[in-house]
Amino acid sequence: MNTALIVDDSKVVRRFARNILEGLGFTCREAADGAEALTACRTAMPDLVLLDWEMPVLDGLGFATALRAEPGGDKPKVLFCTTHNDITYIQRALAAGSDEYVMKPFDREIIELKLRNVGVDV
Question: Does the pTM exceed 0.90?
Answer without folding.
Answer: yes
